[in-house]
Amino acid sequence: MNAYEKLLKARSKDRATFSRFLNTIFDNFYEFHGDRRFADDLAVIGGVAYLGDLPVTVIGLEKGIDTKDKIKRNFGCANPEGYRKALRLMKQAEKFKRPVICFIDTSGAYCGIGAEERGQGQAISQNLTEMASLECPVIAIVIGEGGSGGALALSVADEIWMLENAVYSVISPEGCASILWKDAKRAQEAAECLKMTAEDLLNLGIIDKIIQEKNFDQTTKDIKELLTNTIKKLMSLSVKDLINNRYFKYRNMGNRFI
Amino acid sequence: MIRRAQFKKPRNKLEESEISFHPPIIKDNLCCNCPSCKKIVFLEDLKNNLGVCPICSKHLKIKARERIQYIADADTFEELFGDLKSNNILNFPDYDQKLSASQDQSNENEAVITGVCEINDIKCCIFAMEPFFMMGSMGSVVGEKIARLFEYASERKLSVIGFTISGGARMQEGMLSLMQMAKVSAAVNRHSKLGLLYIAILCDPTAGGVTASFAMSADIIAAEPQALICFAGPRVIEQTIRQKLPPNFQKAEFLLEKGFIDIVMPRYDQKKFLTDMLKIHTFNQEKNAV
Ligand SMILES: [Zn+2]
Description:
The complex is a heterodimer. By secondary structure, chain A is an alpha/beta fold. Chain A has one domain (3-250): Alpha-Beta Complex (2-enoyl-CoA Hydratase, Chain A, domain 1), CATH 3.90.226. Chain A is 45% helix and 19% strand. Chain A is globular and about 50 Å long. In chain A, 55% of the residues are buried. Chain B is 37% helix and 17% strand. Chain B has helices at 43-48, 64-71, 95-106, 140-156, 174-193, 208-215, 234-241, 252-258, 270-289, and strands at 25-26, 31-33, 40-42, 78-80, 112-119, 122-129, 160-166, 198-206, 220-223, 263-264. By secondary structure, chain B is α/β, with parallel strands linked by helices. In chain B, helix 4 runs parallel beside helix 5 (174-193) and helix 5 (174-193) runs parallel beside helix 6. Chain B is globular. Mean pLDDT of chain B is 89; it is low at 1-19. The chains are: A alpha/beta, B alpha/beta. Zinc ion (ZN) binds next to loops of chain B.
């Protein structure tokens, strides 16, 4: 599969969205709502659950299952209050010393009048800043589409993983092609150029791991095992080392090309 | 009533947006057309007026170096990390040509200038983004220079003053450019946790990944009058919601009203403003240091 085919697959109707991963990997999930400032953004689902016998905070971007659900969840495009809800839950996890696991599947942060009025840029910026020094382990998994700043706002993490056929890009290839070549139809070409597949991003040193896609049960079993082992490893670090490692992970990203 | 737009699948966000960068149109050696009011302005007058149109007060785009010259005390600016240049890491089509054309056009190596200077005898770090270099877009080198500046400031306990002008992340560097947002945010955070001051002055335009990272994470956020400050550009939003936007939408004054910036600061008042802010915010720190 080329990059564009992977993108189409990541966007396809049949692909499992966050809630299916949530229900399969975790037990006893309680959803917590609202950003305590404006509203409850349904594009973001978050709360507490058990990973095996370990309490964790799980947050994810949900595109929606059927048409009604997709509209309710704004097709997984979060507004500022979605990012603020996510940050609130992360700070709660930090307080109670449990790890945070974020699932990414969005074409991007929502762009609309309300989103701008309520500070989409500020909300994302604050997440990037706070997540950089969050005093608990954070793992981000891109399960479908990782759309630009709207995905980054939930993926400043100690480890970033991607499913084999997931994509993560600075801009949609359609957007890229229409800006660069004034022709959205050249999206396929743009998708290649942008280096958005899991394999490309592993080679560039941006992600840490690719999770092979088998049947859903096996894939989620693998994720569960990986999460359990990685969290164990991260929990054994001192807070100082954890934060330092995360700082230098981002600090050094791409520096071998400078 | 539910608007039709609500049933439309949202379009994908554009990072480096469509925002246009109009430099003054130079007619001859003496005058130019103001891109805002279209009136003829003498270049000499424009320069004496810090690049603000003497007729309509539009704050025009000026080169990063000119901006630093207006703010820093004479002969105090020392450039840091000025040699860093971008590579075409992803072999992105036409990126090499764009880089060299931008270098020629702007006479700069990259889209941000970083260094130290004195502002009314107060030493501080300063960065200014260069609108005439690929619309001030942020690639690996821009991110690296700003991150290094914050680290330099952290080591020396200096404040940072930053002028942002940018179309957002530079798509020719793919995900590496997106990651600069996280990298710079982390460096700003470390600087902040040391109790140090960061003031951002948002200039026209500040968009996309720059708005969503270090433009919005300063202790004090000022903006030039009428500057466009946004995450998603106005055209992307119009296409998404299929509605015309109100005229003042996403302008500095709009952000002030919505509570996202501290103050609108015209160019001629910026030096006094920055001096006062540096004095006020370091007053107790210096007292404690003695
Ligand atoms: Zn004018």
